[in-house]
Amino acid sequence: MATHVSGRFDRIAVIHELVPGQPDPLDFLAIDLLLDGEETLLRDTVRQFVSDKVAPHIADWWDEGLFPRDLVPQMGELGLLGMHLEGYGCAGTSAVAYGLACTELEAGDSGIRSFVSVQTSLAMYPIWAFGSEQQKRRWLPPMAAGELIGCFGLTEVDSGSDPGAMTTTAARKGEGWVLNGSKMWITNGSIADLAIVWAMTDDGMCGFIVPTDSEGFSATPIKRKMSLRASDTSELVFTDVELGPDSILPNVRGLKGPLSCLNEARFGIMFGAVGAARSCYESALAYSIDREQFGRPIASFQLTQKKLVEMMVGVNNGMLLALHLGRKRDEGTLASEHVNYGKYTNVAMALGVAREARTILGANGITLDYPVIRHMNNLESVYTYEGTNEIHTLILGEAITGLSAFT
Ligand code: TGC
Ligand code: FAD
Protein backbone atom coordinates (compact mmCIF):
# COMPACT_ATOMS: atom_id res chain seq x y z
CA MET A 1 0.00 0.00 0.00
CA ALA A 2 1.23 3.47 -0.84
CA THR A 3 2.44 5.54 2.06
CA HIS A 4 1.66 9.14 1.24
CA VAL A 5 3.66 11.68 3.14
CA SER A 6 3.85 15.40 2.60
CA GLY A 7 5.73 16.05 -0.61
CA ARG A 8 5.36 16.37 -4.32
CA PHE A 9 3.47 13.59 -6.05
CA ASP A 10 4.22 12.42 -9.59
CA ARG A 11 0.62 12.32 -10.69
CA ILE A 12 -0.04 15.89 -9.61
CA ALA A 13 3.18 17.02 -11.28
CA VAL A 14 2.12 15.32 -14.51
CA ILE A 15 -1.26 17.04 -14.50
CA HIS A 16 0.45 20.34 -13.80
CA GLU A 17 2.81 19.88 -16.74
CA LEU A 18 -0.13 19.19 -19.02
CA VAL A 19 -1.46 22.69 -18.40
CA PRO A 20 1.58 24.99 -18.26
CA GLY A 21 0.95 28.48 -17.03
CA GLN A 22 -1.88 27.43 -14.75
CA PRO A 23 -1.50 27.78 -10.98
CA ASP A 24 0.42 25.02 -9.19
CA PRO A 25 -2.09 22.85 -7.28
CA LEU A 26 0.51 22.62 -4.51
CA ASP A 27 1.22 26.37 -4.32
CA PHE A 28 -1.85 27.90 -5.93
CA LEU A 29 -1.12 31.53 -5.07
CA ALA A 30 2.62 31.16 -5.77
CA ILE A 31 3.37 32.06 -2.17
CA ASP A 32 6.85 30.60 -2.66
CA LEU A 33 7.66 33.74 -4.64
CA LEU A 34 7.06 35.82 -1.51
CA LEU A 35 10.03 34.17 0.20
CA ASP A 36 13.55 35.49 -0.28
CA GLY A 37 16.47 33.24 -1.21
CA GLU A 38 17.58 32.64 2.35
CA GLU A 39 14.05 31.80 3.50
CA THR A 40 13.59 29.39 0.60
CA LEU A 41 16.89 27.68 1.36
CA LEU A 42 16.01 27.30 5.01
CA ARG A 43 12.51 26.05 4.19
CA ASP A 44 13.93 23.51 1.73
CA THR A 45 16.56 22.34 4.22
CA VAL A 46 13.99 21.69 6.93
CA ARG A 47 11.63 20.07 4.38
CA GLN A 48 14.45 17.71 3.37
CA PHE A 49 15.23 16.92 7.02
CA VAL A 50 11.59 16.05 7.61
CA SER A 51 11.42 13.98 4.44
CA ASP A 52 14.61 12.04 5.31
CA LYS A 53 14.44 11.73 9.08
CA VAL A 54 10.82 12.06 10.13
CA ALA A 55 8.47 10.94 7.36
CA PRO A 56 9.78 7.37 6.98
CA HIS A 57 9.34 6.60 10.71
CA ILE A 58 6.67 8.87 12.11
CA ALA A 59 3.75 6.47 11.76
CA ASP A 60 5.64 3.86 13.81
CA TRP A 61 6.72 6.37 16.45
CA TRP A 62 3.15 7.61 16.73
CA ASP A 63 1.80 4.07 16.91
CA GLU A 64 4.29 3.12 19.61
CA GLY A 65 3.98 6.39 21.53
CA LEU A 66 7.66 7.28 21.10
CA PHE A 67 9.33 10.66 20.85
CA PRO A 68 12.44 10.35 18.61
CA ARG A 69 14.99 11.75 21.04
CA ASP A 70 17.86 10.95 18.66
CA LEU A 71 16.64 13.74 16.40
CA VAL A 72 17.27 16.42 19.04
CA PRO A 73 21.04 16.92 18.45
CA GLN A 74 20.38 16.81 14.71
CA MET A 75 17.84 19.59 15.09
CA GLY A 76 20.45 21.46 17.13
CA GLU A 77 23.01 21.03 14.36
CA LEU A 78 20.53 22.43 11.84
CA GLY A 79 20.09 25.51 14.04
CA LEU A 80 16.40 24.79 14.71
CA LEU A 81 16.58 25.19 18.50
CA GLY A 82 16.23 28.78 19.68
CA MET A 83 16.63 29.68 16.04
CA HIS A 84 15.20 33.20 16.12
CA LEU A 85 17.00 34.18 19.32
CA GLU A 86 20.20 36.25 19.12
CA GLY A 87 23.49 35.12 20.64
CA TYR A 88 24.35 32.30 23.07
CA GLY A 89 24.77 29.74 20.28
CA CYS A 90 21.37 30.50 18.71
CA ALA A 91 21.01 30.99 14.96
CA GLY A 92 19.45 34.47 15.22
CA THR A 93 17.19 34.10 12.19
CA SER A 94 14.14 36.21 11.39
CA ALA A 95 10.77 35.35 12.90
CA VAL A 96 9.52 34.37 9.42
CA ALA A 97 12.37 31.86 9.12
CA TYR A 98 11.40 30.36 12.49
CA GLY A 99 7.80 30.18 11.32
CA LEU A 100 8.71 28.48 8.04
CA ALA A 101 10.71 25.87 9.96
CA CYS A 102 7.63 25.24 12.13
CA THR A 103 5.50 24.77 8.99
CA GLU A 104 7.84 22.10 7.65
CA LEU A 105 8.26 20.34 11.00
CA GLU A 106 4.51 20.18 11.55
CA ALA A 107 3.97 18.88 8.00
CA GLY A 108 5.91 15.95 9.43
CA ASP A 109 4.08 15.79 12.76
CA SER A 110 2.72 18.24 15.33
CA GLY A 111 4.74 16.42 17.99
CA ILE A 112 8.02 17.24 16.29
CA ARG A 113 7.02 20.90 15.96
CA SER A 114 5.84 20.84 19.58
CA PHE A 115 9.27 19.74 20.69
CA VAL A 116 10.88 22.66 18.87
CA SER A 117 8.23 25.13 20.09
CA VAL A 118 8.70 24.13 23.70
CA GLN A 119 12.49 24.05 23.55
CA THR A 120 12.70 27.35 21.67
CA SER A 121 9.79 29.50 22.74
CA LEU A 122 8.86 28.16 26.15
CA ALA A 123 12.16 27.01 27.67
CA MET A 124 14.93 29.00 25.94
CA TYR A 125 12.96 32.21 25.36
CA PRO A 126 12.19 32.90 29.06
CA ILE A 127 15.85 32.42 29.95
CA TRP A 128 16.87 34.64 27.00
CA ALA A 129 14.26 37.33 27.78
CA PHE A 130 14.08 37.26 31.59
CA GLY A 131 17.25 35.49 32.75
CA SER A 132 20.48 36.87 34.19
CA GLU A 133 23.59 36.99 32.02
CA GLN A 134 24.96 34.05 34.00
CA GLN A 135 21.79 31.99 33.43
CA LYS A 136 21.87 32.73 29.70
CA ARG A 137 25.51 31.67 29.39
CA ARG A 138 24.99 28.53 31.40
CA TRP A 139 21.82 27.19 29.80
CA LEU A 140 21.29 28.58 26.31
CA PRO A 141 24.31 27.23 24.35
CA PRO A 142 23.75 23.56 25.31
CA MET A 143 20.02 23.96 24.69
CA ALA A 144 20.67 25.43 21.23
CA ALA A 145 22.93 22.47 20.48
CA GLY A 146 20.29 19.99 21.59
CA GLU A 147 22.50 18.73 24.42
CA LEU A 148 19.98 19.82 27.05
CA ILE A 149 16.20 19.61 26.76
CA GLY A 150 13.79 22.01 28.42
CA CYS A 151 10.11 21.96 29.32
CA PHE A 152 7.62 24.61 30.50
CA GLY A 153 5.34 24.09 33.47
CA LEU A 154 2.41 26.47 33.66
CA THR A 155 -0.76 24.33 33.55
CA GLU A 156 -1.96 22.50 36.67
CA VAL A 157 -4.69 19.93 37.19
CA ASP A 158 -7.13 22.64 38.33
CA SER A 159 -5.80 25.62 36.37
CA GLY A 160 -5.58 25.33 32.59
CA SER A 161 -7.19 28.25 30.81
CA ASP A 162 -6.89 30.27 34.03
CA PRO A 163 -3.19 29.92 34.94
CA GLY A 164 -3.49 32.77 37.43
CA ALA A 165 -5.29 30.30 39.73
CA MET A 166 -2.22 28.08 40.09
CA THR A 167 -1.35 26.65 43.51
CA THR A 168 2.31 25.69 43.02
CA THR A 169 4.41 27.79 45.38
CA ALA A 170 8.02 28.82 45.78
CA ALA A 171 8.86 30.00 49.28
CA ARG A 172 12.04 31.69 50.42
CA LYS A 173 14.46 29.42 52.31
CA GLY A 174 17.67 31.18 53.31
CA GLU A 175 19.17 32.65 50.15
CA GLY A 176 17.29 30.15 47.98
CA TRP A 177 13.82 28.73 47.44
CA VAL A 178 11.72 25.67 48.15
CA LEU A 179 9.23 24.57 45.50
CA ASN A 180 6.03 22.62 46.16
CA GLY A 181 3.14 21.66 43.91
CA SER A 182 2.58 20.00 40.55
CA LYS A 183 2.11 20.70 36.84
CA MET A 184 0.01 18.77 34.36
CA TRP A 185 0.19 18.10 30.61
CA ILE A 186 3.81 19.14 30.28
CA THR A 187 5.37 18.56 26.85
CA ASN A 188 8.91 17.10 27.12
CA GLY A 189 8.35 16.72 30.89
CA SER A 190 9.93 13.26 31.24
CA ILE A 191 12.80 13.86 28.82
CA ALA A 192 13.76 17.32 30.04
CA ASP A 193 17.01 18.23 31.77
CA LEU A 194 15.53 21.48 33.05
CA ALA A 195 12.00 22.72 33.65
CA ILE A 196 10.89 26.34 33.54
CA VAL A 197 8.36 26.27 36.37
CA TRP A 198 5.96 29.13 37.07
CA ALA A 199 5.08 29.36 40.76
CA MET A 200 3.44 31.77 43.21
CA THR A 201 5.76 33.61 45.58
CA ASP A 202 5.23 36.40 48.12
CA ASP A 203 6.15 38.68 45.24
CA GLY A 204 3.59 37.24 42.77
CA MET A 205 4.10 34.70 39.99
CA CYS A 206 7.73 33.98 39.18
CA GLY A 207 9.62 31.70 36.81
CA PHE A 208 12.25 29.23 38.07
CA ILE A 209 14.86 27.16 36.26
CA VAL A 210 14.55 23.74 37.89
CA PRO A 211 17.10 21.01 37.04
CA THR A 212 15.08 17.83 36.69
CA ASP A 213 17.59 15.81 38.73
CA SER A 214 16.79 17.96 41.78
CA GLU A 215 15.77 15.96 44.83
CA GLY A 216 11.97 15.99 45.20
CA PHE A 217 11.33 16.49 41.45
CA SER A 218 9.48 13.73 39.61
CA ALA A 219 7.99 13.42 36.11
CA THR A 220 5.50 10.77 35.02
CA PRO A 221 4.44 10.33 31.39
CA ILE A 222 0.70 10.57 30.70
CA LYS A 223 -0.41 7.35 29.00
CA ARG A 224 -3.35 6.38 26.78
CA LYS A 225 -3.16 9.59 24.73
CA MET A 226 -4.90 9.49 21.36
CA SER A 227 -3.18 12.66 20.18
CA LEU A 228 0.43 13.85 19.96
CA ARG A 229 1.58 10.31 20.54
CA ALA A 230 5.06 11.03 19.15
CA SER A 231 5.55 13.63 21.88
CA ASP A 232 6.18 13.22 25.59
CA THR A 233 3.44 14.72 27.78
CA SER A 234 3.96 14.39 31.54
CA GLU A 235 2.87 15.33 35.01
CA LEU A 236 5.53 17.06 37.12
CA VAL A 237 5.49 16.88 40.92
CA PHE A 238 7.64 19.04 43.20
CA THR A 239 8.01 17.94 46.82
CA ASP A 240 10.17 20.33 48.82
CA VAL A 241 12.49 20.88 45.86
CA GLU A 242 15.32 23.08 47.12
CA LEU A 243 16.58 25.61 44.61
CA GLY A 244 19.53 28.01 44.74
CA PRO A 245 19.23 31.80 44.59
CA ASP A 246 20.25 31.67 40.92
CA SER A 247 17.20 29.57 40.00
CA ILE A 248 14.71 32.45 39.77
CA LEU A 249 14.35 34.38 36.51
CA PRO A 250 15.16 37.84 37.87
CA ASN A 251 13.64 40.06 35.21
CA VAL A 252 9.92 39.31 35.25
CA ARG A 253 7.07 39.12 37.75
CA GLY A 254 3.43 38.20 37.22
CA LEU A 255 1.38 36.41 34.58
CA LYS A 256 2.87 38.52 31.81
CA GLY A 257 6.01 36.36 32.16
CA PRO A 258 4.51 33.09 30.96
CA LEU A 259 2.06 34.88 28.65
CA SER A 260 4.98 36.54 26.85
CA CYS A 261 6.46 33.07 26.26
CA LEU A 262 3.09 31.90 24.95
CA ASN A 263 3.07 34.73 22.39
CA GLU A 264 6.28 33.24 21.01
CA ALA A 265 5.02 29.66 20.92
CA ARG A 266 1.60 30.58 19.50
CA PHE A 267 3.41 32.41 16.70
CA GLY A 268 5.16 29.14 15.76
CA ILE A 269 1.89 27.21 15.94
CA MET A 270 0.22 29.69 13.57
CA PHE A 271 2.82 28.69 10.95
CA GLY A 272 3.02 25.06 12.02
CA ALA A 273 -0.68 24.31 11.64
CA VAL A 274 -0.43 25.28 7.96
CA GLY A 275 2.11 22.48 7.52
CA ALA A 276 -0.20 19.86 9.00
CA ALA A 277 -3.05 21.16 6.81
CA ARG A 278 -0.83 21.14 3.73
CA SER A 279 0.17 17.54 4.34
CA CYS A 280 -3.51 16.52 4.63
CA TYR A 281 -4.49 18.45 1.49
CA GLU A 282 -1.65 16.97 -0.57
CA SER A 283 -2.45 13.51 0.65
CA ALA A 284 -6.16 13.86 -0.19
CA LEU A 285 -5.45 15.40 -3.59
CA ALA A 286 -3.06 12.62 -4.61
CA TYR A 287 -5.41 9.94 -3.28
CA SER A 288 -8.46 11.37 -5.03
CA ILE A 289 -6.69 11.41 -8.39
CA ASP A 290 -5.54 7.78 -8.02
CA ARG A 291 -8.64 6.31 -6.45
CA GLU A 292 -11.38 5.26 -8.86
CA GLN A 293 -15.02 4.52 -8.09
CA PHE A 294 -17.85 4.26 -10.58
CA GLY A 295 -15.15 3.95 -13.25
CA ARG A 296 -13.74 7.43 -12.63
CA PRO A 297 -11.24 9.08 -10.28
CA ILE A 298 -13.08 10.24 -7.17
CA ALA A 299 -11.39 13.63 -7.83
CA SER A 300 -13.81 14.04 -10.73
CA PHE A 301 -16.87 14.10 -8.48
CA GLN A 302 -18.24 17.54 -7.73
CA LEU A 303 -18.51 16.91 -4.01
CA THR A 304 -14.86 15.83 -3.85
CA GLN A 305 -13.74 18.85 -5.84
CA LYS A 306 -15.59 21.14 -3.44
CA LYS A 307 -13.75 19.58 -0.52
CA LEU A 308 -10.38 19.81 -2.30
CA VAL A 309 -10.94 23.44 -3.22
CA GLU A 310 -11.91 24.36 0.33
CA MET A 311 -8.77 22.64 1.62
CA MET A 312 -6.57 24.33 -0.97
CA VAL A 313 -8.03 27.74 -0.14
CA GLY A 314 -7.59 27.09 3.59
CA VAL A 315 -3.94 26.16 3.19
CA ASN A 316 -3.16 29.12 0.93
CA ASN A 317 -5.02 31.63 3.10
CA GLY A 318 -3.39 30.18 6.22
CA MET A 319 0.07 30.58 4.76
CA LEU A 320 -0.62 34.13 3.58
CA LEU A 321 -1.88 35.02 7.04
CA ALA A 322 1.13 33.49 8.76
CA LEU A 323 3.53 35.19 6.40
CA HIS A 324 1.81 38.55 6.79
CA LEU A 325 1.94 38.33 10.58
CA GLY A 326 5.50 37.02 10.41
CA ARG A 327 6.56 40.02 8.34
CA LYS A 328 4.81 42.31 10.86
CA ARG A 329 6.76 40.61 13.63
CA ASP A 330 10.05 41.14 11.80
CA GLU A 331 9.27 44.83 11.21
CA GLY A 332 8.22 45.25 14.86
CA THR A 333 4.50 45.98 14.36
CA LEU A 334 2.98 42.72 15.58
CA ALA A 335 0.59 42.97 18.58
CA SER A 336 -0.05 39.94 20.79
CA GLU A 337 -3.69 40.05 19.60
CA HIS A 338 -2.43 39.43 16.07
CA VAL A 339 -0.85 36.22 17.35
CA ASN A 340 -4.17 35.24 18.93
CA TYR A 341 -5.79 35.88 15.53
CA GLY A 342 -3.23 33.69 13.79
CA LYS A 343 -3.44 30.76 16.22
CA TYR A 344 -7.23 30.95 16.34
CA THR A 345 -7.62 31.03 12.55
CA ASN A 346 -4.96 28.62 11.37
CA VAL A 347 -5.48 25.83 13.88
CA ALA A 348 -9.24 25.80 13.23
CA MET A 349 -8.49 25.82 9.49
CA ALA A 350 -6.04 22.92 9.82
CA LEU A 351 -8.43 20.82 11.88
CA GLY A 352 -11.18 21.41 9.30
CA VAL A 353 -8.84 20.48 6.43
CA ALA A 354 -7.73 17.31 8.24
CA ARG A 355 -11.32 16.21 8.85
CA GLU A 356 -12.29 16.79 5.20
CA ALA A 357 -9.15 15.02 3.96
CA ARG A 358 -10.04 12.06 6.14
CA THR A 359 -13.39 11.69 4.40
CA ILE A 360 -11.76 11.69 0.94
CA LEU A 361 -9.50 8.81 1.93
CA GLY A 362 -12.50 6.70 2.91
CA ALA A 363 -11.57 3.69 5.03
CA ASN A 364 -7.88 4.17 4.22
CA GLY A 365 -8.21 7.49 6.00
CA ILE A 366 -8.46 5.85 9.40
CA THR A 367 -5.10 4.08 9.13
CA LEU A 368 -1.57 5.27 9.88
CA ASP A 369 -0.59 4.31 6.30
CA TYR A 370 -1.60 7.86 5.44
CA PRO A 371 -0.72 10.93 7.55
CA VAL A 372 -4.23 12.32 7.73
CA ILE A 373 -5.76 10.81 10.85
CA ARG A 374 -2.48 11.26 12.72
CA HIS A 375 -2.54 14.98 11.88
CA MET A 376 -6.26 15.15 12.68
CA ASN A 377 -5.81 13.64 16.12
CA ASN A 378 -2.73 15.74 16.81
CA LEU A 379 -4.58 18.90 15.87
CA GLU A 380 -7.18 18.23 18.56
CA SER A 381 -4.39 18.94 21.07
CA VAL A 382 -3.11 21.91 19.11
CA TYR A 383 -6.66 23.32 19.18
CA THR A 384 -6.59 23.06 22.99
CA TYR A 385 -3.05 23.85 24.05
CA GLU A 386 -1.39 27.26 24.00
CA GLY A 387 -4.81 28.74 24.74
CA THR A 388 -7.96 26.95 23.64
CA ASN A 389 -9.86 28.17 20.61
CA GLU A 390 -12.43 29.64 23.01
CA ILE A 391 -9.78 31.59 24.94
CA HIS A 392 -8.41 33.07 21.70
CA THR A 393 -11.97 33.94 20.66
CA LEU A 394 -12.48 35.84 23.90
CA ILE A 395 -9.15 37.67 23.66
CA LEU A 396 -10.14 38.78 20.15
CA GLY A 397 -13.62 39.64 21.43
CA GLU A 398 -12.08 41.94 24.01
CA ALA A 399 -9.78 43.45 21.39
CA ILE A 400 -12.73 44.58 19.27
CA THR A 401 -15.28 45.43 21.99
CA GLY A 402 -13.06 46.69 24.78
CA LEU A 403 -14.99 44.41 27.15
CA SER A 404 -13.28 41.52 28.96
CA ALA A 405 -15.12 38.20 29.23
CA PHE A 406 -12.81 37.15 32.06
CA THR A 407 -13.37 39.80 34.72
P1 TGC B 1 -4.83 39.43 32.41
O1 TGC B 1 -5.32 40.17 33.61
O2 TGC B 1 -5.46 39.68 31.10
O3 TGC B 1 -3.26 39.67 32.25
C1 TGC B 1 -2.35 39.46 33.32
C2 TGC B 1 -1.06 40.18 32.97
O4 TGC B 1 -0.50 39.60 31.78
C3 TGC B 1 -0.40 40.60 30.76
N1 TGC B 1 -0.74 39.95 29.50
C4 TGC B 1 0.17 39.62 28.58
N2 TGC B 1 1.49 39.81 28.54
C5 TGC B 1 2.13 39.37 27.46
N3 TGC B 1 1.52 38.75 26.44
C6 TGC B 1 0.19 38.53 26.45
N4 TGC B 1 -0.39 37.88 25.44
C7 TGC B 1 -0.55 38.97 27.55
N5 TGC B 1 -1.85 38.91 27.90
C8 TGC B 1 -1.95 39.52 29.09
C9 TGC B 1 -1.38 41.67 31.15
O5 TGC B 1 -1.03 42.91 30.60
C10 TGC B 1 -1.24 41.65 32.65
O6 TGC B 1 -0.03 42.32 32.98
P2 TGC B 1 0.10 43.19 34.32
O7 TGC B 1 1.46 43.80 34.25
O8 TGC B 1 -1.02 44.19 34.28
O9 TGC B 1 -0.06 42.23 35.46
O10 TGC B 1 -4.88 37.89 32.78
P3 TGC B 1 -6.10 36.91 33.05
O11 TGC B 1 -5.83 36.19 34.33
O12 TGC B 1 -7.40 37.64 32.91
O13 TGC B 1 -5.95 35.80 31.89
C11 TGC B 1 -5.96 36.13 30.58
C12 TGC B 1 -6.00 34.87 29.70
C13 TGC B 1 -7.21 34.00 29.97
C14 TGC B 1 -6.09 35.37 28.28
C15 TGC B 1 -4.72 34.06 29.90
O14 TGC B 1 -4.63 33.57 31.15
C16 TGC B 1 -4.55 32.94 28.90
O15 TGC B 1 -3.99 33.17 27.81
N6 TGC B 1 -4.96 31.69 29.23
C17 TGC B 1 -4.64 30.52 28.40
C18 TGC B 1 -3.55 29.73 29.07
C19 TGC B 1 -2.65 29.05 28.10
O16 TGC B 1 -2.53 29.40 26.93
N7 TGC B 1 -1.90 28.09 28.59
C20 TGC B 1 -0.90 27.43 27.78
C21 TGC B 1 0.01 26.58 28.61
S1 TGC B 1 1.52 26.15 27.83
C22 TGC B 1 1.06 25.11 26.61
O17 TGC B 1 -0.06 24.84 26.32
C23 TGC B 1 2.18 24.51 25.87
S2 TGC B 1 1.75 23.40 24.63
C24 TGC B 1 3.29 23.21 24.05
C25 TGC B 1 3.45 22.45 22.83
O18 TGC B 1 3.56 21.20 22.92
O19 TGC B 1 3.57 23.09 21.74
P1 FAD C 1 -9.95 24.00 30.71
O1 FAD C 1 -9.29 25.30 30.97
O2 FAD C 1 -10.54 23.27 31.87
O3 FAD C 1 -11.05 24.21 29.61
C1 FAD C 1 -12.04 23.23 29.30
C2 FAD C 1 -13.03 23.85 28.31
O4 FAD C 1 -13.63 25.01 28.92
C3 FAD C 1 -12.34 24.35 27.04
O5 FAD C 1 -13.18 24.17 25.94
C4 FAD C 1 -12.16 25.82 27.31
O6 FAD C 1 -12.05 26.61 26.13
C5 FAD C 1 -13.43 26.13 28.07
N1 FAD C 1 -13.30 27.35 28.87
C6 FAD C 1 -12.47 27.60 29.92
N2 FAD C 1 -12.60 28.86 30.34
C7 FAD C 1 -13.52 29.44 29.54
C8 FAD C 1 -14.10 30.74 29.46
N3 FAD C 1 -13.74 31.72 30.28
N4 FAD C 1 -15.05 30.95 28.51
C9 FAD C 1 -15.41 29.99 27.63
N5 FAD C 1 -14.90 28.74 27.65
C10 FAD C 1 -13.96 28.48 28.60
N6 FAD C 1 0.61 23.17 29.49
C11 FAD C 1 1.82 23.63 29.93
O7 FAD C 1 1.91 24.42 30.85
N7 FAD C 1 2.97 23.20 29.34
C12 FAD C 1 2.99 22.32 28.31
O8 FAD C 1 4.06 21.96 27.80
C13 FAD C 1 1.74 21.82 27.84
N8 FAD C 1 1.71 20.88 26.86
C14 FAD C 1 0.51 20.30 26.51
C15 FAD C 1 0.50 19.23 25.62
C16 FAD C 1 -0.70 18.61 25.30
C17 FAD C 1 -0.69 17.43 24.37
C18 FAD C 1 -1.91 19.10 25.82
C19 FAD C 1 -3.22 18.46 25.43
C20 FAD C 1 -1.92 20.15 26.71
C21 FAD C 1 -0.70 20.75 27.07
N9 FAD C 1 -0.66 21.79 28.03
C22 FAD C 1 0.56 22.28 28.47
C23 FAD C 1 -1.87 22.20 28.71
C24 FAD C 1 -2.75 23.14 27.88
O9 FAD C 1 -2.20 24.41 27.79
C25 FAD C 1 -4.14 23.17 28.54
O10 FAD C 1 -4.72 21.91 28.29
C26 FAD C 1 -5.00 24.30 28.01
O11 FAD C 1 -4.51 25.55 28.42
C27 FAD C 1 -6.47 24.16 28.46
O12 FAD C 1 -6.56 23.88 29.82
P2 FAD C 1 -7.46 22.65 30.35
O13 FAD C 1 -7.08 21.45 29.56
O14 FAD C 1 -7.30 22.61 31.82
O15 FAD C 1 -8.92 23.02 29.94
Overview features:
3 domains, binds 3-thiaglutaryl-CoA, Butyryl-CoA Dehydrogenase, subunit A, domain 3, 14% strand, 407 residues, Butyryl-CoA Dehydrogenase, subunit A, domain 2, binds flavin-adenine dinucleotide, alpha+beta, Butyryl-Coa Dehydrogenase, subunit A, domain 1, 4-stranded antiparallel sheet
Structure, explained:
The chain is an alpha+beta fold. The protein contains twelve helices and nine strands. Strands 2-3-7-6 form a four-stranded antiparallel sheet, with helices on one face. A three-stranded mixed sheet has the order 1-4-5, with helices on one face. The N and C termini lie far apart (54 Å). The N terminus is likely disordered. The structure holds 3-thiaglutaryl-CoA and flavin-adenine dinucleotide.
- Quickly count the domains: 3
- The CATH architecture term of the largest domain is Up-down Bundle
Report the principal-axis shape. Answer: globular
Q: In whole angstroms, how far apart are the ends?
A: 54 Å
| Count of extended strands | 9
The top level CATH class name of the largest domain: Mainly Alpha
Percent of residues in beta strands?
5-15%
Query: What do the pLDDT scores average to?
Result: 95
Order of helices and strands: HHHHHHHEEEEEEEHEEHHHH
**Largest sheet at a glance?**
4 strands, antiparallel
Q: Supply the CATH superfamily name of the largest domain.
A: Butyryl-CoA Dehydrogenase, subunit A, domain 3
Radius of gyration over C-alpha positions, nearest whole angstrom: 22 Å
Poorly predicted regions are: 1-8
